[in-house]
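Input structure tokens:
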């Protein structure tokens, strides 16, 4: 049967479909036109900028870090370039462990390198390259280059490394740099200086490296590169060069610093020597020390454990953070307070039977039978405890506090490195604020007595005591201690002196100061430290001290040979010289060494000889002082100018820091090269802890 089609009906359906399709096309083209208008007109500026950014890449140029020099232009911290093998985790094809294993067959990668890499990888983003090996030799570079095709995501880069050519010498002053951690990165990103740290991986962590980070870092440069769609650099469009960091010149004399560290030998302790007229620190010693080079690449767990767990605490800056009872070195300051308050006159006599009774407690003097009739001069020269027991009773804790606070005891000095300890200058208010229980907050009269001889709750840093000694030597004019002498602009070569203004003038009577100075001169002429200053070409003033680590019972006598070495008395000494025109004031402690006259004063004598007469002790003398077997100098001293510099490698390694040997060996070659470069730079630059106090104090 034949079907007859309805042509009209078909045409109507076709036309309907055409209308629908045409409408859809019109709508779609309309939407496309609107979108094109929106993108090309409305958002033109924004998208044009994005396109330009996709076409170009901004590459930061990290500046050379500024050098650190001593006051004579000897470079103590510098930079050198070396090759590193780096992995970008997001670009590797194989599993990371497998890549590292294959790399180990080409480049020597130790277990500590792998541990450090994993630690740094955890602190980095996946698209950042992380070093797996530093300081590659030329042979290693060539060996990897030949097999580069096997390792996508692995590359060799040239990086600048910080180097401290004299290893552990003055490490607590100089500090070190280390990789920026997440906390530091967050602070930088929130700061106004965030742009200047683009591409920077390292930052100052301690000492001058940390405190003068802004001056040392420099200004980051940029390169604007045109890139292909695949991200490959095509050509450089524009650039601004990085500006190296400025040079920081310390007030430290590194030869003097090395001498003092050598004189301490393997003993623990601290010494601060400063110019009382300017506040410039000449030597800032904390023993033992550490090698800051270990931290530059990120210290490995073995070396960190060796340093952090050492019983000698080499990472503790004893001069800045270690607090000690001052012992008998406190007596001249107590005597000055007595004169200022009228509690004692110079000629006032007290009778010393060899002890002082307070209630039922006997406070013993070190000299059995006592010192007899004692005035102020004799109390200082012979270090009479009984004189200061009675003085402490008459003054009371709060009056002592009010007299000692202006001298800087228990106060922050404001020195230009971070981490300073306040110590403890006791008072009734201090005790109320320190303890929680009411019975602990109460001040007992018996606690006052031992404060007079620098024991009890008294605990101060060597920096504070040296600062106080400098103020007395400077007739009451206080200067803020500082370690940096000047900052030299790397571009203009202009030098900005760190000239500190006086903090203030203490209202100390010149007559009272002369009484104290006369007593301290007597200590070095006829008193407890006289033998150390025999033959000196100048007149000096000093005071020995011996601070107890634990309390000796009333029915017992102190016997150093019968107790553990770390429980023995500390040896202390404070001094300034020349007495009539002071150029140097110092405070020092040799931990658990015994008498200050035997183990501390001899070191001070060599410091004064260095600064005042330009004499450097003989090697025989240095070794005898290390053993506590020399008071006055022995052997023939040398002119300071004739002492060779840099020291021989054997001299720098004379006292081994607490580290794993393999890490030091790994950096030896690069460090030697950097030390040579540092010496050349120097001549060019020059031309342009708390211990628990006790209740008695032997000398």
């Amino acid at each position: 049967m034949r079907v007859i089609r309805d042509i009209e009906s078909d045409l109507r359906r076709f036309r309907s479909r055409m209308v629908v399709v045409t409408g859809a096309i019109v709508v779609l083209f309309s939407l496309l036109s609107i979108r094109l208008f929106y993108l090309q007109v409305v958002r033109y500026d924004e998208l044009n900028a994005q396109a330009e950014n996709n076409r170009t890449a901004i590459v930061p140029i990290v500046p050379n870090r500024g050098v650190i020099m001593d006051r004579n232009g000897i470079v103590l911290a510098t930079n050198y370039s070396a090759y590193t093998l780096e992995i970008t985790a997001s670009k590797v094809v194989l599993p990371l462990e497998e890549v590292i294993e294959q790399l180990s067959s080409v480049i020597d990668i130790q277990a500590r390198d792998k541990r450090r890499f994993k630690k740094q990888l955890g602190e980095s983003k996946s698209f950042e390259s992380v070093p797996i090996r530093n300081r590659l030799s030329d042979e290693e570079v060539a060996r990897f280059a030949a097999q580069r095709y096997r390792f996508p995501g692995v590359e060799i880069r040239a990086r600048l490394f910080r180097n401290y050519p004299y290893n552990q010498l003055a490490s607590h002053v100089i500090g070190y740099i280390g990789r920026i951690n997440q906390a530091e990165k967050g602070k930088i990103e929130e700061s106004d200086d965030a742009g200047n740290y683009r591409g920077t991986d390292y930052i100052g962590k301690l000492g001058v490296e940390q405190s003068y980070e802004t001056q040392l870092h420099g200004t980051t440069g940029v390169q604007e590169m045109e890139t292909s769609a695949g991200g490959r650099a095509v050509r450089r469009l524009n650039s601004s060069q990085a500006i190296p960091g400025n040079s920081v010149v310390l007030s430290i004399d590194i030869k003097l610093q090395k001498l003092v560290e050598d004189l301490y030998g393997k003993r623990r302790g601290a010494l601060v020597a400063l110019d009382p007229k300017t506040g410039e620190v000449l030597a800032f010693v904390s023993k033992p020390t550490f090698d800051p080079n270990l931290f530059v690449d990120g210290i490995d767990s073995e070396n960190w454990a060796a340093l952090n767990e050492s019983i000698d605490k080499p990472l503790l800056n004893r001069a800045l953070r270690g607090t000690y009872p001052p012992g008998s070195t406190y007596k001249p300051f107590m005597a000055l307070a007595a004169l200022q308050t009228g509690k004692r006159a110079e000629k006032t006599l007290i009778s010393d039977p060899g002890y002082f009774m307070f209630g039922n407690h006997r406070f013993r003097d070190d000299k059995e039978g006592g010192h007899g009739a004692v005035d102020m001069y004799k109390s200082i020269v012979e270090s009479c405890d009984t004189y200061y027991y009675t003085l402490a009773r008459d003054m009371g804790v709060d009056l002592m506090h009010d007299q000692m606070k202006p001298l800087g005891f228990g106060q922050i000095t404001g020195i230009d490195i971070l981490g300073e300890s306040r110590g403890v200058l006791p008072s009734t208010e201090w005790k109320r604020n320190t303890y929680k229980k009411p019975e602990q907050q109460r001040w007992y009269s018996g606690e006052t007595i031992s404060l007079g001889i620098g024991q009890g709750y008294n605990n101060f840093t060597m920096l504070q005591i040296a600062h106080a000694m400098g103020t007395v030597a400077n007739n009451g004019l206080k200067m803020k201690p500082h370690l940096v002498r000047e900052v030299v602009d790397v571009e203009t070569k202009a030098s900005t002196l760190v000239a500190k203004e006086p903090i203030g003038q203490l209202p100390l009577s010149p007559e009272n100061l002369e009484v104290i100075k006369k007593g301290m001169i007597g200590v070095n002429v006829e008193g407890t430290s006289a033998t150390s200053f025999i033959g000196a070409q100048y007149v000096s003033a000093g005071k020995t001290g011996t601070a107890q680590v634990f309390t000796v019972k009333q029915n017992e006598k102190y016997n150093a040979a019968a107790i553990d070495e770390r429980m023995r008395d500390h040896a202390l000494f404070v001094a300034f010289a020349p007495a009539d025109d002071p150029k140097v004031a110092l405070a020092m402690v040799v931990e658990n060494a015994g008498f200050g006259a035997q183990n501390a004063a001899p070191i001070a004598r060599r410091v004064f000889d260095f600064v005042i007469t330009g004499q450097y002790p003989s090697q025989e003398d240095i070794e005898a002082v290390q053993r506590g077997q020399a008071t006055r100098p022995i052997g023939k001293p040398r002119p300071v100018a004739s002492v060779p510099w840099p020291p021989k490698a054997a001299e720098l390694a004379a006292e081994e820091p607490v580290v794993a040997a393999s890490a030091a060996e790994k950096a030896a070659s690069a460090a030697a090269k950097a030390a040579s470069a540092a010496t050349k730079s120097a001549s060019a630059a020059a031309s342009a802890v708390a211990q628990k106090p006790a209740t008695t104090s032997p000398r």
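The longest helix spans residues 7-42. Confidence is low (pLDDT under 50) at residues 660-698.
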